[in-house]
Amino acid sequence: MTNIVKNAVRTQIPGPANRFPFGVLLEYSPNSLAFAVKATREYGRIFKIPFGVFNVNLVVITDPEDIQRVLQDNNQAYSKQSNFKMLINQVLGGESLVTLEGNIWLPRRRLEQPAFHREYLNGFANTMVDATQKLVERWEGFASRREQFELGAETSKLTLEIAGRTLFGVDLSDPNLELGRAYDGIVKYYSYRSSNAFAPPPNFPTAQNRAFKESRRIMDQAVLETIAQRRRQPKMQTDLLGMLMQARDAETGVTLSDTELLGELNGMIFAGHETSSNALTWALWLLSNHPEIEQKLRAELSTVLEGRTPEFADIQKLTYTKMVLDEAMRLYPPAWSIARQALEDDVLSGYHIPKGTSIMIFAYGTHRDPRYWTEPDRFNPDRFLPEAASSRPKYSLVTFGGGPRQCIGLQFAMMEMQLALALIVPRFRVRLEAGHPVQPMPAFTLQPKGGMPIRLERV
Ligand code: HEM
Helix 258-289 vs helix 410-424: angle between axes, to the nearest 10 degrees? Predict the structure, then answer.
């Protein structure tokens, strides 16, 4: 035991009492977000959630100092949480950067990092603009017909098309493609498994498990065929698969095998599609409720773009657009929690954390902590003006995680979302269907419960 652990004064982390047989599982499992919000109010910046006979030690943290310790300063003492890892690997059919650890993760991250550098991202801007222009065309139709539609379905179609095309040159959002439907099945299966504590394991022959396995088979076969075809006819490809196929470990010269490439593509699509889609959905809804902010955003777009189509070089100039997105993701972080497991004893907020403890970094709670965010529930992009941002602790905002495992797709995501707002906001105003309640719901990402039925108004 380290000195720091010996000197820890407290061992009893506050939290609800354990109960036989499942502790608070039956209240926690159907809506872990609402449970954690309530418990944060009651117990503060660190608390324990008991699960009865399951004997899982789950500790929730929201304090920036604790988060910095787990994600950065003492990150080698924490791994990804084992249940989370198991579920992701089952759903994705194998390991990827998202779940790999230690000695295997580091060289993989080094190998992939260059593919996310600005110079490469530059090449994706056209695809992002092109996909958003297709959305704008569809929306012209919705607006003319005053037709109601589901906002999330549209942003999801957009980011899925972008992910598929930039990753391996296939439009996964095409409903006519078997592949698009298969991918949809995989995402739904993840939500089902993650929100049903008693869902039977994948090998049980239930209808859900069978449908999932078929979706997984279709998806993997398509990706492996693309890889095989490219191995047969190697030519310079500028999508991410192309870059990953050429990437070589700087020390060993080793390249990725087909199975590793498959895992990586599956991981990237999964990590990058629904996250950006939900962030855009929340941002458009928040803008519709704040006309003065929407107006200010429109003014920036008009000054920077002067009516032309946005391009890569504009991204850096669209500063208010970025602030709007940062603020939308503060309020509704797509990754509303981040899971870790203690590999050794540690101390957080003065409490002893025994080896094996599952840690939930409750990003949603941190992002609304009134110690760092005045009027935390108010949508106010000015919080992200440089002087305001520099006065807060770094880890009071963990939208993209932090430390060595910070999101590799951060710049990719910001760019696709900035370009999307730049094309949508000058043309349309989003109007939520009157009386529809909006409530965040935790799944893989934070989604609006019951969706967001909207109509459009032309600007
Ligand atoms: C708004 C959009 C996005 C959000 C909010 C987001 C959030 C996050 C967060 C919080 C993590 C850290 C998870 C942890 O520490 O356990 C992460 C990791 C990751 N993200 Fe993102 N992400 C977004 C978009 C993307 C995109 C577009 C891609 C890929 C094209 C991507 C690929 C990844 C990968 C591969 C990891 C694992 C990195 C590693 O562990 O080395 N993400 N993301």
Answer: 40
Q: How far is the CA of 416 from the centre of ligand 1 (A)?
A: 14
Angle, vertex CA 91, rays to CA 87 and CA 92, nearest 5: 115
Distance 334 CA to ligand 1 centre (A): 10
- Kindly give, in sequence order, each residue whose CB lies less than 8 Å from that of residue 291, ignoring residues fewer than 6 positions away: none
Structure confidence by residue, pLDDT tens digits, 368-409: 999 999 999 999 999 999 999 999 999 999 999 999 999 999
Contact 334, 348 (CB under 8 A): no
Residue 249 token pair: 């470990």
Short-list 272, 265, 305, 220, CA closest to 417: 272
Lining ligand 1 with CB less than 6 A are: 80, 97-98, 109, 267-268, 271-272, 275-276, 279, 334-335, 338, 399-401, 405, 407-409, 412-413
Q: Give the chain's domain count.
A: 1
In which domain, by residue range, is 91 found? 3-458
| pLDDT tens profile 14-49 | 999 888 898 888 888 778 899 999 999 999 999 999
Q: Whose CA is nearest to atom 7 of ligand 1?
A: 400
pTM over 0.85: yes
Best of 70, 120, 241, 407 for a ligand 1 pocket test (most atoms within 8 Å of beta carbon): 407
How far apart CA 278 and CA 117 sit, in angstroms, is 24
Q: CA distances (Å), 456 to each of 213, 287, 291, 294, 408, in order? A: 38, 13, 14, 14, 34
Radius of gyration, alpha carbons of the chain: 22
What is the whole-number distance in angstroms between the Cα of residue 407 and the centre of ligand 1? 4
CATH number at residue 26: 1.10.630.10
Give the integer Cα–Cα distance in Å for 458 and 268: 35
